[in-house]
């Protein structure tokens, strides 16, 4: 055997190899081992990607290069017309003998199984006929992890090195089926890494309950598009589906239904593990002091009684910020949340607080005078938020907040992530202010995908850039990414997935690919094919325009 070294980025030297064993064209015993260099912290990323491979001058079936439709577009990519057959009967993904991770590493075993199925369809269909199909030009993909600690039980993080992202996309998107039903892959050289570390999707499971199968299906779609954060807006005014062990009445009395429309502890654990296996973080959002009407159903005296004149009106407003019992509750609640969700961050919301109820309450008016707040109720909001942030900080968690918390001058830790979503002032101005203050910024303003319009609205989604604001290079580096948001007023299990995809794919490429990747015409051609890949995987992504998918007439 001979070693063929692959071109790799300078930072990837001295890192472990991933081998792909290739058979010669005449099926002789001569083999060539191919490997690509890896540098990965969490193992789920270490499985991954070939930075490229170089084959000899074998004769193979050619494929038109313009049919190659990688999405998101890699940082560097070059493909040849030389093609090689891949057969489920004679190609396999295996652990290299030298690898520090072996068959006991569940995260790798799970990845191998998924990727094989992605390439060849249902694995079970091939088990009985593996010796009956055509042979492969390529024999196996050997995954060699050389780090002393393969981190089989690791959890993805903001700091994770993704320079060798899961090989499912760079490898699997290159596998195509020819007119005779054979799977092929072209000789290709890829170097890839993400532009931004935080690439998220927000799903709202309060306004409409989202069954587990819908959440899991969209986590699968997220992995296909290289999203790495699931922002779970799990509760809000309409319902409280999170089943708390500490405060069971929250879901018993706050969910749409206490048994069918709740996420049990095992459900939450399943979502987190399913996401972890795909390199996706799960960040829960528990938004307070506003957006908490459903909380009050199961927690007595948590919300502020509203008044009509001198008498209670019978309605309630935001969390009551003047009672110690409110903070005692939050202390116990977020202590639980910090143990249930392993991510280093919790999203604490802090947006859209309606002050009218606070203004009507005589006890709160008296408190405002005592604190010297005058009639500025944003100071009362800041008072509450500051105490909440201290509570969460005591759990050793970092926090994300909506931009109002920053705008209102709340004292924040240096590692606070500010989530920009408002259209006024212009989000470019807000991004400049947040980063000028030294905080990490996330953008969502142009990516509220629940807002739909006729035609190809993905184009404007695609053109929006988180760093498109006036600021220094140091400020631009504080932009850690963004999120596409799908709020649930008009979205439930019946229409969530087609409304989200492939429009969210446009966000995915903006957050992954180089900032110079802006050609809408080229993006359209690739996105049409990528959408077809999603449909083939069972994801009901909407069409971009008139046309068809190749698998429609091939019976695939």
TrEMBL record:
Q: Which compartments is it annotated to reside in? A: Cytoplasmic vesicle, Secretory vesicle, Cortical granule; Lysosome
| A Pfam family recorded for this sequence | Glyco_hydro_20
- Tell me which domain of life the UniProt entry assigns to the organism this sequence originates from: Eukaryota
Q: Which CDD domains match?
A: GH20_HexA_HexB-like
Q: Name one GO biological process term.
A: carbohydrate metabolic process
Cross-referenced InterPro entries, in alphabetical order? Beta_hexosaminidase_sua/sub, GH, Glyco_hydro_20_cat, Hex-like_dom2, HEX_eukaryotic_N
Q: Which GO terms describe its molecular function?
A: beta-N-acetylhexosaminidase activity
The catalytic residues are 352 (proton donor)
Instruction: Kindly list the cysteine pairs connected by disulfide bridges.
Output: 105-152, 306-357, 532-549
Q: Which catalysed reactions does the entry list for this protein?
A: a ganglioside GM2 + H2O = a ganglioside GM3 + N-acetyl-beta-D-galactosamine; N-acetyl-beta-D-6-sulfogalactosaminyl-(1->4)-alpha-L-iduronyl-(1->3)-N-acetyl-D-6-sulfogalactosamine + H2O = alpha-L-iduronyl-(1->3)-N-acetyl-D-6-sulfogalactosamine + N-acetyl-D-6-sulfogalactosamine; Hydrolysis of terminal non-reducing N-acetyl-D-hexosamine residues in N-acetyl-beta-D-hexosaminides; beta-D-GalNAc-(1->4)-alpha-L-IdoA-(1->3)-beta-D-GalNAc-4-sulfate-(1->4)-alpha-L-IdoA-(1->3)-D-GalNAc-4-sulfate + H2O = alpha-L-IdoA-(1->3)-beta-D-GalNAc-4-sulfate-(1->4)-alpha-L-IdoA-(1->3)-D-GalNAc-4-sulfate + N-acetyl-D-galactosamine
Q: Can you cite an annotated GO cellular component?
A: membrane
Which major enzyme category is it? hydrolase
Acyltransferase recorded as keyword: no
User: Would the keyword Signal turn up in this protein's UniProt record?
Assistant: yes
What keywords sit in the KW lines? Cytoplasmic vesicle, Disulfide bond, Glycoprotein, Glycosidase, Hydrolase, Lipid metabolism, Lysosome, Signal
Q: Where is the Glycoside hydrolase family 20 catalytic domain?
A: 196-514
Q: What is its EC number?
A: 3.2.1.52
Beta-hexosaminidase eukaryotic type N-terminal domain location is 70-165
Job of this protein:
Hydrolyzes the non-reducing end N-acetyl-D-hexosamine and/or sulfated N-acetyl-D-hexosamine of glycoconjugates, such as the oligosaccharide moieties from proteins and neutral glycolipids, or from certain mucopolysaccharides. The isozyme B does not hydrolyze each of these substrates, however hydrolyzes efficiently neutral oligosaccharide. Only the isozyme A is responsible for the degradation of GM2 gangliosides in the presence of GM2A. During fertilization is responsible, at least in part, for the zona block to polyspermy.
Tell me, how does this one assemble?
Answer: There are 3 forms of beta-hexosaminidase: hexosaminidase A is a heterodimer composed of one subunit alpha and one subunit beta (chain A and B); hexosaminidase B is a homodimer of two beta subunits (two chains A and B); hexosaminidase S is a homodimer of two alpha subunits. The composition of the dimer (isozyme A versus isozyme S) has a significant effect on the substrate specificity of the alpha subunit active site.
Q: Which family does it belong to?
A: Belongs to the glycosyl hydrolase 20 family.
* Record-given protein name: Beta-hexosaminidase
């Amino acid at each position: 055997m001979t070693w063929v070294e692959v071109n790799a980025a300078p930072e990837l030297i001295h890192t472990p190899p991933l081998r792909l064993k290739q058979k010669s064209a005449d099926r002789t015993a001569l083999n060539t081992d191919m490997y690509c260099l890896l540098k990965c912290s969490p193992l789920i990323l270490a499985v991954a990607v070939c930075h490229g491979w170089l084959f000899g001058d074998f004769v193979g079936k050619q494929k038109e290069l313009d049919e190659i439709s990688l999405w998101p577009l890699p940082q560097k990519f070059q493909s040849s017309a030389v093609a090689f057959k891949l057969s489920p009967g004679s190609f396999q993904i295996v652990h290299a003998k030298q690898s520090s991770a072996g068959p006991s590493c569940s995260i790798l075993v799970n990845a191998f199984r998924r990727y094989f199925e992605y390439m060849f369809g249902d694995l079970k269909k091939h088990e009985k006929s593996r010796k009956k199909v055509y042979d492969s030009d390529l024999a196996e993909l050997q995954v060699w992890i050389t780090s002393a600690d393969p981190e089989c039980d690791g959890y993805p993080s903001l700091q994770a090195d993704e320079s060798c992202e899961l090989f499912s996309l760079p490898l699997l998107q290159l596998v195509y089926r020819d007119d005779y039903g054979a799977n092929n892959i072209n000789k290709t050289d890829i170097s890839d890494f993400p532009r931004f570390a935080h690439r998220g999707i927000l799903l709202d499971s309060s306004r409409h309950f989202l069954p587990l199968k819908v959440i899991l299906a969209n986590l699968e779609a997220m992995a296909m598009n290289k999203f790495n954060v699931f922002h779970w807006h799990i509760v809000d005014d309409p319902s409280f589906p999170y089943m708390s062990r500490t405060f069971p009445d929250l879901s018993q009395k706050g969910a749409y239904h206490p048994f069918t429309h709740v996420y049990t502890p095992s459900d939450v654990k399943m979502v987190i593990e399913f996401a972890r296996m795909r390199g996706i973080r799960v960040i829960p959002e528990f938004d307070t002091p506003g957006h908490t009407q459903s909380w009050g159903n199961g927690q007595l005296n948590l919300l502020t009684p509203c008044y009509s004149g001198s008498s209670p009106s019978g309605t309630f407003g935001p969390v009551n910020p003047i009672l110690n019992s409110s903070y005692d509750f939050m202390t116990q609640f977020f202590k639980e949340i910090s143990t249930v969700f392993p991510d280093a961050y919790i999203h604490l919301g802090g947006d859209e607080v309606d002050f009218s109820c606070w203004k009507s309450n005589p006890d709160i008016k008296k408190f405002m005078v005592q604190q010297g707040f005058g009639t500025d109720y944003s100071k009362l909001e800041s008072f509450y938020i500051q105490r909440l942030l201290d509570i969460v900080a005591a759990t050793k968690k970092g926090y994300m907040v909506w931009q109002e918390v920053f705008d209102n001058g709340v004292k924040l830790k240096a590692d606070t992530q500010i989530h920009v979503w408002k259209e006024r002032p212009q989000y470019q101005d807000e991004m400049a202010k947040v980063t000028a203050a030294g905080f990490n910024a996330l953008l969502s303003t142009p990516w509220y995908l629940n807002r739909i319009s006729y035609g190809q609205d993905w184009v404007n989604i695609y053109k929006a850039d988180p760093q498109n604001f006036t600021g220094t290079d140091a400020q631009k580096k504080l932009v850690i990414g963004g999120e596409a948001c799908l709020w649930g007023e008009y979205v439930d299990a019946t229409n969530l997935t087609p409304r989200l995809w492939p429009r969210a794919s446009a966000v995915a490429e903006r957050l992954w690919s180089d900032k110079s990747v802006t050609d809408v015409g080229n993006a359209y051609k690739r996105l049409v094919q990528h959408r077809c890949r999603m449909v083939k995987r069972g994801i009901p992504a909407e069409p971009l325009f008139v046309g068809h998918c190749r698998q429609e007439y091939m019976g695939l």
